[in-house]
Amino acid sequence: MSENRPDLVIHGSVNASGGRYNKVDVQGFGKIKGDVECEKLHCAGHLGIAGNVRGAAAKVEGNASISGNVELKTIEVYGQLDVDGNLSFSKLRVDGNAKVDGHLTGEEVKVRGMLKTSGDCEAEVFSAKGAFTVGGLLNAGRIEVYLHAGCEAKEIGGEYIEVKKGGSSTLNKLLKHIFNSMTILSADTIEGDDIYLEYTRAKVVRGKNVTIGPGCEIELVESAEQFRLDPDSEVKQHVKR
User: Fold this and answer.
1) What torsion, rounded to 10 degrees, do the Cα atoms 87, 134, 79, 28 define?
2) How far, in Å, CA of 175 to CA of 94, rounded?
3) End-to-end Cα, the chain, rounded Å
4) What are phi and psi of 20, to 5 degrees?
5) Exposed/middle/buried for 241, CB within 10 Å: 0-12, 13-18, 19+?
6) Residue 161 contacts by C-beta under 8 Å, 6 or more apart in sequence?
7) Nearest-5° angle of CA 177, CA 183, CA 186?
8) Span 30-87, pLDDT tens digits
9) CA 37 to CA 55: how far, in whole Å?
10) What pLDDT, on the 0 to 100 scale, is given for residue 182?
11) Distances from the Cα of 232 to the Cαs of 150, 164, 235, in angstroms?
């Protein structure tokens, strides 16, 4: 199918129309008006798309701004990606900076840079060693967070939730310098089956087996079976369900 499609290659400053392409490769400064469907999208320069994007794979090493919804199988962000709509994917890797005004929906999310969404983030696996802000619900079957910078979500839900403080690495120092935030996770509600938390502030933590490690401030913990509390953490109230 992609054999009959032309490539769109942008060097210098180019205005182009949306359409169906094989590859979209931006090395310069490009503006595309209309929806884009392509097999591969590569941005190493500056790209603005006034429309929706559908395709197989995208790699952003420069700066890309999309005014509509994005639907891609794999997305790699090493530069800056801004999406005004929703972002759906199979795999999302953020080593740079990604900002989404809508919802994120996919199978696997890996954050090593900064991810921010105003809506919900839903995936099968969510792994973060960078910073993230989720304005709504962060929901995944497995959530693993290694705190190298401040992270927050309004609500967090999953079967397995693990939050640990990251080690004193170059990444840790770099992210703290960039975002200038406390290395904690903040959430209103955290709910899951098996929960292990370090350096977390939350109003309510609710789960089957709950372990509160060091550095936590929790108002209410509700546990169905096991409950463990580190002496370095504060839980105002614990209720056995």
Assistant:
1) 50
2) 14
3) 56
4) -105, 120
5) exposed
6) 143, 190, 192, 194, 195, 196, 197, 207
7) 130
8) 999 999 999 999 999 999 999 999 999 999 999 999 999 999 999 999 999 999 999 9
9) 6
10) 76
11) 20, 14, 10
Would you state the pLDDT for residue 241?
82
CA–CA gap between residue 127 and residue 76 (Å, rounded) = 15
User: Token pair of 36, please?
Assistant: 């884009």
- SS percent in the chain: helix, strand, coil, step 5: 5, 70, 25
Report the SS3 class of residue 214: coil
Query: What is the C-alpha to C-alpha distance for residues 97 and 159, in angstroms, rounded to an integer?
Result: 27
Report yes or no: 166 and 149 within 8 Å, Cβ to Cβ: no
Side-chain-side CA neighbours of residue 206 (13 Å): 9
- Segment 174-200 shows an average pLDDT of 83
- Residue type, position 150, single letter: G
Burial 148-175 (b: 16+ CB within 10 A, else e): bbbbbbebbbbebbbbbbbeeeebbeeb
**Residue found by looking up tokens 């006034």 in the block:** 50
Can you tell me the distance from the alpha carbon of 146 to that of 127, in angstroms, rounded to the nearest whole number? 8
